[in-house]
Structure formats: structure tokens, C-alpha cells
Amino acid sequence: MSRLSYHFLALFFLLAVTTFTAAQEMTPAEAEALKASDKQAFEFLETIAEGIPSLRAFENRIYLTNAVADLLWSKDEKRARGLFDAVTREMVAAVAAYEPSDQERYNDQRMIQQQRQDTIDRMANHDPEMAMAFLRATRFPVTSESTQYRANETELEFHLAAMIAERDPAQALRVARNSLRKGIPYSIVQVLSQIHAKDRNSAQSLHAEIVDRLKTEELSRNHEVVNNAWNLLNSYRPPEAKEETYRELIELMVGAALTVNPRDSASISLANNFYYQLRSAVPQIEKYVPGRLPAVRQWIERVQRTQDPGTRMYQEINDLAEKGTIDDILALAGKYGPELQTQIYQQAVGKALSSGEPNRAQQIISEFVTDPAQRRQMLEQLDNQLAWNSVQGNQIAETRRRLSRIKRVEQRANLLMSLAMNVASAGNKKQGLDLLTEARALLDSSPLDSSTLISRLQLAQNYSSLDSEEGVALLESIIMRMNQLVAAAAVLDGFEDRYLKDGEWLKANHTNLGNLVRNLTQNIGELARRDPTSARYLSNKLERPEIRLMAQLEIVQSLLGGVEQTHPTLTGRSVRINLK
Length: 580
Hints:
580 residues, two-stranded antiparallel ribbon, mainly alpha, 2% strand
């Protein structure tokens, strides 16, 4: 263990002791005022805080410490700041120890970058200045080869500016202007939108500066900047944007497109990029720079002549998707060879379904698709879609009729579960439970693999909302099985997949089993909303302490009123924790 890790653990122990000692010194009147769920939540939080120092994997310590600090801020800002400071110290050490020439360490960079963003997001919700200081303190050394890294840093700075803008648009504007010298990321639109909501004039001024910055870029060569510029053009328009500035941007993008030679093999990809964007921008071009329209149409025709048949077919289908009829789409089959016709028929089937004509969809497949395997596959897909449609309409008899045509057991079970919850939410709890019983019988008769285990987790969650006792029993049986699978994976670690680091199961484990473990801990967290005692009982059944801590964190988030919001975490799930 590194010297910094020992420092981190010592600091963490000190903070934990001071925090929870303070909590124990609450007066009886204050204790009585706390809601029972809050008391339970902070018991869980104490368990998590006490368990973090024993973790060996840097990623797990950072993830859990960030979450604890985020949860504690409204109750104990001083302690939360201390935890964020501890995270900063350990992250600085991790960046300093990074060695790009070491392939194994190089693979850690993506993980560190994800955790930096998670930390910045959590800090910025409470103190944007602290988040900015963290961003600056934890940058990797920049080398001449790190162009992509510099682009990612610029993206992160603009992302932080967008968060700051909600509270302090003037500060966000300063951050954005400073970062603009380094590049033009995709998130620049988010910053503009947030600043505009608070200060229209500042946003329009920044918009003009962005357009001036784009004029210095080689748009005829840089795919990424071109995409970001089109996003800006499509997202920030008059009357929000000044017409003069918007006209400059359109003129700039049109001028860049017309310099791209679609017949040059090195420019084909960029030409196609401009082609699709210009086609959709014709109304704006006609309004703001009408003199350019003839040249734009001529250039679009040049690109079309270079496109392969498949590309032209997809373009025609897209044009007909909204305005054309089923017969218009079918008529395209006569223009293209057999290798493309099946895709045309698939689009026609989709059009028939969206138009409420399922019989016509089946007729198209049966009449036009001649390959037996393709016909069978398309008919199965049609049966699945029609079954889901019947579930959405709470058509119990129709769903049962269509279930017999669905081959995969977990698909039939998932249909029954969705129908059960729809029926229960409409007021018929008993029928909902009966349908869940049918789904359970199907899953019990099926061999246990990753797909059926996911379905069993869903079944347990559904039961928990209708029959807590049955849901808890199901989750407990799944936990017993999951403990066995995790133990087996630990033995096989590194043979095919990596499950562990420093001997610990990682939160950011993106194997099938890793996803199942996350699903399970989230299920336990959901149960806590209705039955915190059973949720804690189940979390204690998880054998690996790091997984147990992750489940307990899910419980705390549920009890303290966690709500879904845009907040990227290591798993890619969007979570924002709000304390009551």
C-alpha cells in the first residue's frame, strides 16, 4: 500500500470518528425529530464509512468516498469537505504514479478519467470552485502525443462550466472563455443553453466568440470539430442566437463543405458527413444565405453520384419514412438488387406497424421475403412486437394468445411480468400477482443462465412492489446463487475476463456477471424504499465485503430520497442524490 493510501486511510478514520461522534451527541429532542428512515440511512452510512478504509482497490475507495461525501454535505458540510479533500489527495497520487509506457498502468487511465468526472460532478453540485480546483490538481501530464487527452480535458472543463452556470453564469462564462482557447467540444451547446437561461446577452456574446474560434479551424479536415459545429448550428438558433452570428456560422459551414471534394478518396467520409447535415439544413440556408443555395444543391448532387447503392437506398428510405406510404417504400425494391431488398421489406413492415396495420406487415413478409430463414426471423420479430403491443394495451387474452408463438422462455416471462405490473397499476393487484406466478413458473422450468437470472431479478423486484415477503425470499435465493458465481469468477479471474483488482470486486466491472451484481445491488436499494429492514438483511447476505458496501450505499440513497438525474457515475447510470 502506498504512503498516500495510508495517509488517506488515517484521514478517513479521523473524519469518520469525528462525524459519527457528533451524531451521537444529538439531543433527545433532535433525535426524536429525525425521521425513522433518516436514522436507518445514517446507520447504513456509518457502516459504509467504517468499511471503506479496509478496501484495497483504489477505484472502490474513491467511488464510495465520493458517494458518502455527496450524501453527507447537507448534514455535515465540514466532514463532507474533508472526504472530498481525501479523494483529491489520493487522485493526485494516482495521476502522479501514472506511467504511459507501462501498458497495465496505461489501461487504468480511462478508469481514473471516469472517476475524475464523477468527483467533479459531485463536487460541483455543492461547491463549483472546489470542483475546478480538483480538475486542475488532477490533470495528467500533457505530452505532444496526447491530443485526444487535451480534447477530453476541454470537454470536461465545458461540462463543469455548464454545471456552474446554474448558480453563477458569470463564472461559467469566464471558464468557457478560458477553455475556448483550447478547443470547441460537443458540450459547448450545454454551456450556451445554461448561460442563456440566466443571461441572454452573455450567451449571445459567447456564441459570437465560438463562431470566431471556428473560423480558425480547418473544418474541411477535422471530423470532430465539424460535428460539434453542426450541433451548435442545430441547437442554438434565432431568436435565442443573434441572426447576424447565426448567418456567419451557416456561411462558414457551407463554405467548408463546398471545399470538400467528394471524389477524393481521402475526403469521402467527411463529404458524407457534410452531405447529410447540409440536406437537413437547406431551410436555414435558404433563409439566411439564399445566394449559396444553388451551389449547395449542386454539391449535394455531386455527392449522391459517388454514393454506393446501399447508401442511396437508405437515403431514399429515410426520405419516405415520414412522408411516404407503405407502397412507396415497397416500390424501392424494384430499383435495387436482391441483397438490399430484404432491408427495404423490413422498413415497409415497420411502416405498416407504425401505421396500425399488423395484417399488412405479415402479408409483406409472407409475400415478398423469399429466403426461408429471413422470413422466419422476421415473422418471429413481428410476433414479439405484436405481443409487446398487446401488453402495453393491457390486453390479457391477446397477450396469452401471442405468448404461444414466442419461443424464448425469458421473453415470455418478461411479457407476463410487464403485463402483471400494468394490470396491478390499473387496480387489479390479485391478477397482477397471478401473472407473476405464471412468469415464475416459466423461469423455474428454465436452466439458469445470465438471461434468466436477469429475468429472475426483475421478477423479484416486481414481487417486492406487490408482495414484499415473496420478493425478499426471491432476492435471498438469488443472492445465494450470486455468491457462488462471484466466488467462481474470483477463482477464474484473469483466465478470460478480469473481475478483480487488488483482490477486490470492482464497481466498474463490465462483464456480464459484473452487470448482474450491479443489478442485484440496485434491486436491494429499490426494496429499501418499502422495506429497509429486509433490504439491510439482504445486503448482509452478500459475502464479499466490497459488494456488501455497494449494496448498502444503494440502500442509503433510497432512504435519503435519491432521484434519477443526469449525473454520470462509473457504471454509466445517471444518479443524483438529494437529501431531504
